[in-house]
Amino acid sequence: MTADPHFGFVIVAYAIAFVIIAGMILAILRDYSTLRQALSRFPAGQRRGASEGEAAPPESWP
Amino acid sequence: MRNYANPSNFLRLTGVLTPYLAALTAALLCLGLYLAWFVAPPDYQQGETVRIMYLHVPAAWLSMWIYIVMTSAALGTLVWRHPLADAAQKAAAPLGAAFTFLCLVTGSLWGKPMWGAWWVWDARLTSVLVLFLIYLALVALWRTIEDPGKAARAAAIFTLVGAINIPIIKFSVDWWNTLHQPASVFRLGGPAIAGSMLWPLLIMALAFTLLFATLHLMAIRNEILRRRLRRLSILAADAAGAEFSPASTSFGAAR
After folding, report:
1. In B, which residues are within 8 Å of A54 by CB distance?
2. SS3 of A61, please?
């Protein structure tokens, strides 16, 4: 397998795929952690109140 | 289905589903990689380079599939005004951009040893590059327009217009004389690929699709939390504004 003259291209392709997929996963997990931290600054009662109006479309819609 | 239009219900569902989906994705990815590397034979012409196919083809399929998901969500935003449609569309765009980028990079790494060029302005390659630029434009659009409602409508219309590119990508290899090979899996006469290579490819494609489903659910959850945070911040700012309004402020004159 490694004797193939183009084996380096295969390795680089898989390495880049690993970096891109790991990057997506880490970015989403980091975003989630940041949002949870920011939300935790608000009292639980307010958070419940804010979640009640979420089923409606965004406020500026006609 | 209507029940999950409520973001709180959706968050609960995501909390239950995500660990199972993530475990299934990891298991399928491990199986797919094992089959792609140790079971699938090298190609009689391309040698080991054909192993790039197990990344390139699933990424290419997903790049188009994600756009179809976004187009459905755009219809959900404009026609049915589903409260989660806009969040689903917004959450999918960066994932679509990442998978399209992966498709372009792995295609380039496959093309150099096989075609002798990193890039050619071939109809298939160019239309996929246009798809990548559309994804980037959509991400930029959401970041540029501050009002979420206006951003949702603008992005939905842009997505629907951009959907014309999907059939162009699919049929580019039939409509024009391209260096890129025509379809070899989904075609009228059945797959033109040996079973020993087809099964690892299908398993990798399923693993990539599940990976997208998992990441998409997690990204929608983040979007719901971001909106909740925005609403709370506005309420807090309003409350602070009322507290320090001119009517209630003495500026210390009475002291």
Report:
1. 6-8, 83, 224, 227-228, 231
2. coil
